[in-house]
Amino acid sequence: MKHKLIAFTLLLFTFCSSFGQSPDLPNDFLSKEWHKERRQKLRESMPANSVAIFFANAVRNRSNDVDYVYHQDPDFFYLTGYREPEAVLLIFKDNQTAANGTVYNEIIFVQERNAMREMWTGRRIGAEGTKNLLGFEQAFNGSQFKKYNVEFSKFSEILFYDFQNDVRDNPRDSTDLYSLIEQFKEKVNYPKKDNSLTVLKEQPKNNLNMRGLHSLMASLRGVKTTEEIELLRKAVMISCVGQVEVMKAIEPGMSEREIQGIHEYVFKKYQAEDLGYPSIVGGGHNGCILHYTDNYKPSLDNKELILMDLGAEFHGYTADITRTIPVNGKFSPEQKKIYELVLSAQEASMKACKPGVELSHLTVVSRDVVNKGLVELGIIKTETEKHLFFPHGVSHHIGLDVHDKGHRVLEPNMAITIEPGVYIPDNSATDPKWWGIAVRIEDDYLITKEGCELLSGYAPRTVADIEAMMKQPSPLQKFKLPELEPKKK
Ligand code: GLY
Ligand code: MN
Ligand code: MN
Prior knowledge:
Layout: H1 2-16, H2 32-45, E1 50-55, E2 61-63, E3 66-67, H3 74-80, E4 88-97, E5 103-110, H4 115-121, H5 126-132, E6 139-141, E7 157-159, H6 177-188, E8 208-209, H7 212-222, H8 226-249, H9 256-269, E9 274-275, E10 280-283, E11 305-310, E12 312-314, E13 317-318, E14 321-326, H10 333-352, H11 359-376, E15 415-418, E16 421-424, E17 437-440, E18 443-447, E19 452-454, H12 463-470
Parallel strand pairs: 1-7, 5-6, 7-8
Antiparallel strand pairs: 1-4, 2-3, 4-5, 9-12, 10-11, 11-14, 12-13, 15-18, 16-17, 18-19
Helix pairs in contact: 1-4, 2-3, 8-9, 10-11
The chain binds glycine (GLY) and manganese (II) ion (MN) (2 copies).
């Protein structure tokens, strides 16, 4: 009786979580037609008589039986829309004919449906769902990949990314990602390595091409389609609202973590699934640590700046925005001087930003402005002096990755950041009045035919606009939580 009940429950669960767009899912994901067109574009750019193979991202274990939240590999997502692990995609330049006469030019192997596993870890769409929801004609369970017998030696080139050997084997699952990779290696005669922890140092002298795919995918992903731009605009706008709400709510004595929480609450409120990267919230000298993610400081000081670099990821697309503001709502004279110098560097790079220009040129322009300004302020002695106050480039592509794939020369519909900064750590060899000042201003831009469009202007950037916004009331001023511990008398 008990078994019958379990079987019935599983059947019911399988039925309820069956195919068809679930009412629990957003209805503005990229369409199956969009992903299919991306595959066709890749196919058109592939060399003659070639096949390209992509693997889903691995599930990463956090500890014991807890895994990190799964995030699909951006190339895999771009080409398929598939959001689950344990899958492999093959895209062929030319039509292939299966033993049963079926003609096809792409095929995908995905994780099999399993009522019990789905009850514990969530819905799977399976091979049928991959056909119905994602528009694949040839979709099979991962267990079929082993005996899938296309003759790989006939291709002039087999394009794939070399393996990092960081995928765990689940010995109880012969269809996990580890097994799919091992089966693939077997099929293509992937060379055996002396040390299984190193990737191949040289390109093997056969038809395996582990270098070419990056450039093909950069050409595609670097130039955004209308649909992608719409999602990017949304991710950027959500991230700007986070900055605005913090400008209104921040008070001395708040913690870095609390500020991070306000941003991330806003992201979630607007249904952003994820963060594009770990949030950077650094008060005072913590802002000098470029990728500071500890966010531990329990109480922000009245006189310091806070540097906040956060990006919401919406349906896969991420913003990358930094604002630096005074915790007490008013920049000190020194903070204002550095802030306005960084802003003028950003404005200069923005003016230089147009099709045909190299990304690295934007760094040259910003660096020039910053170095001249630092000399004028007496912080460095000569414009060519090598110094650590501005140690990074100012621009990269954004998209499915925060540091997205894309070529170096700008074209219309590329999306990039411009993000100059000045960081003066405590005990630097300069007047102590500058110590602990760290300013980065980072905005997101869409390259247009003539120049670029600022996407993140909703979050104030000038000193006057930031100070005015910080005077606005915040709904969070009324949001009081109980003390966890009674105050000591
Ligand atoms: N948030 C990482 C970066 O600005 O590149
Ligand atoms: Mn950036
Ligand atoms: Mn950033």
